[in-house]
Amino acid sequence: MTIKKKRVIFLDRNENQYGPSPACFKVLQRSRDNTLNIYSRDFERGIKSLLSERLAKDFGIEEKKILLGYGSEDILKQSVQCYINKGDKIMIPSYSWWYYKKIADEAEGVNIQYPIVEGKGTFYYDIEGMIKVHDTQKPKLVLISSPNNPTGNRLEFDQLNFVLEKMKESVVVLDEAYSLFDETYNTDPVGLVKKYPNLIIIRTFSKYYALAGIRTGFAFLGDNHDRISLLSARYLGFNRLSEKIAIAALDSKEYYNSMRKKMSADMVMLFNELTQLPGFNAYRSFANFILVKIPPEIKVPLKKYLTERNMIIKFMNEDGLESHIRITLGTHSQNCKLLKMIKSFMSKEIVHELV
Ligand SMILES: Cc1ncc(COP(=O)(O)O)c(C=O)c1O
Question: Which residues, in sequence order, are bridge partners of residue 327?
């Protein structure tokens, strides 16, 4: 008799469990030998790659204003490495992706935090506080994440414009890794980089397009950023399979729209259901994850309970978020499964046993 190994469900790293569109897999099936053994010759046409050409066309911007990278992680690093020298100040949100600090440390930059604060059922950027920190510290570079990881809040378009107006003297890097999950998001990236030459807006194929494995990110560059554009251009091209898969994803609007609808409905379901549990407090999120405050005493037993059932979510440890979990939205059935597990854990018998 063969024993079937139970599959672990990973809802801890903001990956997209729906997976990429079928058109992306077709690219892999059809890829011919010469995609693999031959460099692209796109450089000779004066462009970086088929993908940057396509993105430029879709968004209506010059190709040279599109930067490509090995995920948005790479572009974040490139931006910081390009502008930060030892001792230069970088402004980072007080709650943010832990990796920002690491990137700043690698460049020997000095981290300056600016406030994201907790409100009722949502975190928000304290805009006045943000500008105050900027004006007193005069940082070389400001990192803004919208929607922000792990808090899930975002800056609305008018707020973003307001902030950018005040930060013209710094390089501003806007991380929009999660921007496409909410239909109502509109930053007009091209309009913004045209208006603010100091701005870099970074997006990725990892999250909404469910292509974390192809490691492809891109950025829109303001006019001040010719240097980073030159530094990151590659004469021998980019990953030829990844760029074709990414283009197939761009061509699969219907697939991704229907996925987004399912995820939005599940976001509402998780928010409503989790908020009702005793001691739980969920925060409004515009991304594909949701931050939830839980009673501190259940942190360890809940982790154990879920892990034993092959369900992995993120138990936060960051300052101020010690009794919080971050749940990445999975497929509908995964989300229901997780909810059922948390509810059964919270059912009187189990909590009584533990507390
Ligand atoms: C806020 C944020 N930006 C960027 C990334 C990096 O994504 P990638 O390098 O896959 O594009 C992540 C990954 O989780 C993230 O949370």
Answer: 290
Residues 128 and 109 in one domain: yes
Q: What are phi and psi of 200, to 5 degrees?
A: -125, 125
Question: Is 176 near ligand 1, meaning CB less than 6 Å away?
Answer: no
Q: How far is the CA of 248 from the centre of ligand 1 (A)?
A: 21
Asked which of 250, 281, 311 is the last residue of a domain, the reply is 250
- From the CB of 204, is ligand 1 less than 6 Å away? yes
Q: What is the pTM of this model?
A: 0.95
For residues 279 and 332, what is the distance between their CA atoms, to the nearest angstrom? 25
Give the count of alpha carbons within 13 A of 135, CB side only: 9
- The one-character DSSP state at 225 is G
Output the CA 220–ligand 1 centroid distance in Å.
16
Segments in the chain below pLDDT 50: none
SS3 175: strand
Is 3 contained in some domain? no
- What does the pLDDT read at residue 157? 93
For residue 141, the one-letter residue type is L
- Is position 4 within any domain? no
Q: What is the pLDDT of residue 226?
A: 92
Could you tell me if residue 2 is inside a domain?
no
**CA angle 11-13-16, nearest 5°?**
70
Q: Is the CB of 97 under 6 A from ligand 1?
A: yes
What 3-state class would DSSP assign to 152? Answer: coil
**Same-domain pairing of 233 and 319:** no
Structure tokens at 75: 């572009």
